[in-house]
């Protein structure tokens, strides 16, 4: 057995990071939220790249379902390449970034602020150029991240988004769940990944599936499989997969499916049934209670159980927290170093 | 040589469809545009699935760059599953659909209208339930589409979006280019696909790349490769590919790259250079003049030329119009019927 990768040890730090977030940054969140409650924005827009963009996609679902604010992703090229004159009046624009140093994100933030948006940056590194361009700043507080593949900074982004929603809605349940998360994440799960790892050891293609809140972590998982395992993984929502991508699902085609305890669950279970009919190789990642309650439906499915479910938003954190070590171990099995991909660097510049 | 597929013959109808769109639907466009010019919306949102969602993504770029209106995609699950109470006041919401019959799109449209948006549906079939739920309606006018893989309805969606922008901005150049498109598309291109087809005949994975306006057609191409060729194709923007997916690009890894004559071109050419360094197999699809002007940079790249460039928006139409017959011929070469995928039906219901 090889020594633990940075990808695994940095994932393990998530628990104490989430705990620290409950103390650091709160005055800014309260000041910002009071302003947004007083003058509700007509829309929100996100600025992010790579893994941070998946956290921004999670923010879109969270803002639309919990706050009723339509939320869009800003494609940086509309500003950096096409020099677009977008009117951001009455909008709330926020960026998520690990380094806060990408030129394209900085340019988008500066434009949004100039064009009238309330602006926020959520960045891991302090005193970054991105922080300086935005009116409000909240640190991720994830500490130095050395692995090329982001893990703890992604999880810290998700929890900052949940925290923002919890304060904006004054939702005490959500605040309580955030407080429970560190303990849940620090518990070692005795069930290991052996059978799921074997299923993917020699594969070249895989699809990752989520629905609603879990779709952003399907995106994140697909990116991590590419980065660390050289495996062509692609994410689809449980809704879109039947529009075309289903053509790939033949006998033994591998799929990773995320299950969460909310209104999306029954549709995802029906999808798994369709995949089982095709005799696909299915790996389900879900809270142990969801797996237990649906064990008959999952009889031809390899399961990776997580801690019990808190709520749909916080479940997303426990699900991806369980996925990262799995990806790191799969990389080892495929004779790769998950911390040092062959073609990639930690800071990516956009061409 | 097999007889021509429906996918190819329906693509060929695009020319006369675009011509017909210049007469049909204009009074509605003018009425709608006058209202939107008088009360500019603070944001726009799109409702669509599958290929139509790629046309909606093109609309996002076109609206943001040409009209300055921030535009988001509505994930139907926020309404159908999470019953979200989104405030659409001061928004412009439009749906794109071939059949206009999908329950989830209809539910989103009804909610957006009730919650205060100006609503438009752009649908191919007349008297659809979606049309009835929206205040304004413009027909795609693409005629009956029999192939499971959408082609002419996608192209007709792109041109309706361009038409909407041309009228909204009162942009006479854009109107003139739309008028030239039918003639350009009806010209047979003597250069055939042979060498590009051979490159992909036995591949299992491919990435498709666009930047800015061409990113939505990279998405559309990836979907078509899956549907018709059983080929795991995935789209990335030229910006995002260096954040992770680049790890897949090893020697002989196949890539399709779209080039357009605008500010995105130099970045895309730099990317091609990076792919050439890795000795990847690269296929570039571009206007013949762009290929000619950059032939030294493209010396290790297989090219598929289209008609000369009109402008970045209309170029997207000529590019995808050239791609569809390529995908159909690749399907034949891989011993598949492009019109009859194994797992798919024409109308897809969301689970």
From TrEMBL, chains A, B:
Keyword field: Repeat
GTP-binding keyword on record: no
PROSITE patterns to which the protein is assigned, alphabetical: SIS
GO biological process: carbohydrate derivative metabolic process
CDD domains reported for this sequence: SIS_GlmS_GlmD_1, SIS_GlmS_GlmD_2
All copies of domain SIS, residue ranges: 32-176, 196-338
GO molecular function term, any single one: carbohydrate derivative binding
Name of the protein in its database record: SIS domain-containing protein
Species whose genome carries this gene: Silvanigrella aquatica
Lineage per the UniProt record: Bacteria, Pseudomonadati, Bdellovibrionota, Oligoflexia, Silvanigrellales
């Amino acid at each position: 057995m090889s020594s633990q990768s940075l990808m695994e040890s940095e994932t393990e730090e998530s628990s104490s990071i989430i705990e620290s977030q409950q103390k650091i940054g709160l005055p800014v969140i309260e000041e910002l939220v009071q302003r947004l409650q007083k003058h509700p924005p007509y829309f929100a827009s996100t600025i992010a790249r790579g893994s941070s963009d998946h956290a921004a996609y999670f923010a879109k679902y969270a803002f639309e379902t919990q706050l009723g604010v339509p939320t869009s992703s800003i494609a940086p090229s509309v500003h950096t390449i096409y020099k677009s004159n977008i009117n951001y009046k009455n909008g709330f624009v926020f960026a998520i970034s690990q380094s806060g140093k990408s030129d394209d994100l900085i340019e988008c933030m500066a434009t949004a602020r100039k064009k009238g948006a309330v602006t926020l940056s959520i960045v891991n590194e302090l005193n970054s150029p991105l922080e300086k361009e935005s009116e409000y700043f909240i640190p991720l507080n994830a500490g130095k991240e050395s692995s090329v593949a982001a893990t703890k900074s992604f999880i810290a982004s998700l929890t900052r988004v949940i925290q923002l929603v919890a304060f904006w809605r004054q939702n005490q349940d959500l605040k309580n769940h955030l407080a429970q998360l560190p303990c849940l994440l620090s518990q070692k799960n005795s069930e290991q990944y052996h059978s799921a790892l074997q299923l993917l050891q020699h594969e070249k293609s895989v699809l990752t599936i989520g629905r609603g809140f879990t779709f952003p972590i399907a995106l994140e998982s697909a990116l991590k499989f590419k980065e660390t395992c050289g495996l062509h993984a692609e994410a689809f929502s449980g809704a879109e997969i039947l529009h075309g991508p289903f053509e790939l699902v033949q006998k033994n085609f591998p799929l990773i499916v995320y299950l969460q305890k909310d209104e999306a669950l029954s549709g995802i279970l029906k999808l798994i049934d369709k995949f089982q009919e095709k005799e696909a190789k299915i790996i389900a990642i879900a809270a142990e209670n969801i797996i237990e309650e649906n064990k008959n439906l999952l009889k031809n499915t390899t399961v990776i159980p997580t801690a019990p479910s808190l709520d749909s938003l916080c479940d997303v954190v426990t699900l991806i927290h369980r996925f990262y070590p799995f990806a790191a171990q799969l990389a080892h099995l495929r004779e790769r170093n998950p911390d040092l991909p062959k073609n990639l660097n930690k800071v990516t510049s956009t061409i």
